[in-house]
Amino acid sequence: MFILISTFLKESCAVRSITRILNISAKTVLSRTLKISKQIKVPYFNKFGCKYEADEMFIKIANNKKQNRLIYTIEQKTKHFIGFVIGSRNTENLKTVIDKVLLLNPKKLYRQVKYLP
Questions:
Q1: Both 30 and 55 in a single domain?
Q2: Is residue 116 domain-resident?
Q3: Is 44 inside any structural domain?
Q4: What are the pLDDT digits (tens) for 61-112?
Q5: Is the dihedral of CA 98, 103, 105, 106 positive or negative?
Q6: Which residues form the domain of 67?
Q7: Which of 28, 95, 96, 109 is the most buried (most CB within 10 A)?
Q8: Do 58 and 86 have their domain in common?
Q9: pTM for the full model?
Q10: How far is CA 23 from CA 1, 19, 30, 37, 112, in A?
């Protein structure tokens, strides 16, 4: 059951869609999603002197009127995630993501965000 739920979540199926397809309650889907999310580990990346990319995208969480952004950095060649943050678009959030890259002594940092340092 966990494998099916995680597969549907990876395919961006909503909770109600999963309940309808698997014929189980929404509370079961939510509790199992929580268990799956606790198993996710932050990837460890320690390759020095690579080229990195920083970008952001607008995301909407529920019916929240607040503007949320996903700000992330990836290693350009392998596309491995270095770090990400979800929140408002401010220098504090940018700094947390960029500092992780600066610790890896980057050869070059490409930026898609307009006002990265």
A1: no
A2: no
A3: no
A4: 777 677 788 899 999 888 888 888 988 888 898 899 999 889 888 998 888 7
A5: negative
A6: 51-111
A7: 109
A8: yes
A9: 0.61
A10: 11, 5, 14, 22, 43
